[in-house]
Design goal:
55% of the residues lie in helices and 8% in strands. The protein is mainly α and 164 residues long. It has a three-stranded antiparallel β-sheet. The protein has a two-stranded antiparallel ribbon with strand order 3-4.
């Protein structure tokens, strides 16, 4: 893993890169939620530190929302649609712009459940950052100093200040 404040690509203000410890094709629901938490961390930290949000986390929010939507529609990880998928028909050029094969009522559920889960995970992340603001400040200071830290260094810095 690696965290950087060096912009990478157009519109990226920094990034968190997670290397898999092994080649994996399976992720548990808790691992997916952890990935969502990571994606929401920048926006939550921004709100904790500046009491305001910006457009900086737009891509991360989009990716978190897409991942939650996939949990519901592809992975059968919702209360109502547990163990079933809600497919889309691939059509158009190169399979782009798929049409859904489920009702408007199902779409409304997907939208509301996506918003609920993303907002719930955001509150969890924000609360953890508020509770552990000192760790956030220590990690931020190191990033401002070095621009990049690896996962081991992050863990050590965060652990030294984390309140459980």
């Amino acid at each position: 893993s690696k965290i950087s404040i060096i912009p990478r690509g157009m519109g990226a203000l920094g990034y968190t890169l997670q290397y898999p410890t092994e080649d994996r094709f399976l992720l548990s629901q808790s691992e997916l939620l952890g990935n969502i938490d990571t994606l929401l961390g920048g926006r939550a930290a921004e709100e904790v530190i500046f009491q305001e949000i910006s457009t900086g986390a737009g891509n991360d929010i989009s990716r978190a929302s897409d991942l939650v939507r996939r949990m519901i529609t592809e992975f059968g990880m919702s209360e109502r649609y547990r163990n079933i998928t809600l497919p889309t028909t691939q059509s158009g050029i190169a399979g782009i712009s798929g049409a859904r094969e489920y009702s408007e009522k199902a779409q409304e559920y997907i939208d509301s459940e996506t918003a609920r889960i993303v907002n719930e995970r955001y509150q969890i992340v924000k609360t953890n950052l508020e509770k552990n603001r000192k760790a956030l400040e220590v990690v931020t200071a190191r990033l401002l100093e070095n621009e990049v830290i690896n996962g081991t260094e992050f863990q050590a810095l965060a652990k030294s200040e984390v309140i459980v």
